[in-house]
């Protein structure tokens, strides 16, 4: 007998590994986290099994394929989104602002709980099979309609288009938590996001104007083949997704005879992607110093940076979408360098914001900056390339509202 009074195990007896009662849920959670971290195409069933410490055979006993795990998580996220904006029966007697506030709090709470995987719904759902995609899209559309109606009840003077733009903005500002790792305690985080969402809803949008003319197509001289490769590659990544584009596809789009011609300029597809992203990050970083130098206040500088960011994003919608959606496919060492540049840019914006709003901590400033930057790509993702639905002046105003907070229904800094 051992000291506890229980029989000692026999020498050489095999230890029995008890299967967790919630094995399926554990598998689903681990696989979802892997998909969110690396992207659907970069994860295999063997990777998931290794992460769980089980064999591939054991994994297949629970789920027939990697796709089943992927589709299951996206379906779950879409159902959670609908539940987040659903009101209890007692809410029928609440005033409209309270009903809307309850839904916003629900979106925030569910996003915080699912922060590790919420990005899948934004960047990876295009890899769903058509029937599953229709189901998931239908759930998100239902949630968006519900939130639009709640916004309309609280602000009945808004047009249907304004309500929908604001509803997309609320989901974007909150779900942006999935795009970064800045952490804040649950209560102050919820309060910060709640305030930002209300500022976005309360912001007065400028009267619709004639859409800005489409940017003039620029012909890239044939001798600048490396520029043409970057441009055509971004378009293909945007249309098909990075994993579904080959070097042969890029060569054909750039008018080159074979993939071997591409390798004269770039070592591989990942190197090409990194070159595009590095240029975008460096451009965004480079304008900060000159903008500060020519501005008389932090508010003025930040307003100018917002204007430039939105202008660049509207002129290169494909690039900004690819930057957010395909970042995980950049080679690991280059991705680390890009993240350093990203953090520096966000920190600079956040430092300006804290000077404008000294009640914010640097961490809170960074969270709001991430939320505001994500608005641009989400508006492009949801509404497409047309400005008939969501004009760039609206996006500028809503970014200002998220950053500068309640009471900034009008632009924080008058435009020239």
Automatic annotation (TrEMBL):
Keywords: DNA-binding. Residues 44-63 bind DNA. Residues 21-81, 223-284 form the HTH tetR-type domain. The keyword Flavoprotein does not apply. This is TetR family transcriptional regulator. The keyword Hydrolase does not apply. Pfam families: TetR_N (PF00440). The lineage of its organism: Bacteria, Bacillati, Actinomycetota, Actinomycetes, Mycobacteriales. GO terms for molecular function: DNA-binding transcription factor activity; transcription cis-regulatory region binding. Residues 1-20 are annotated as: Disordered.
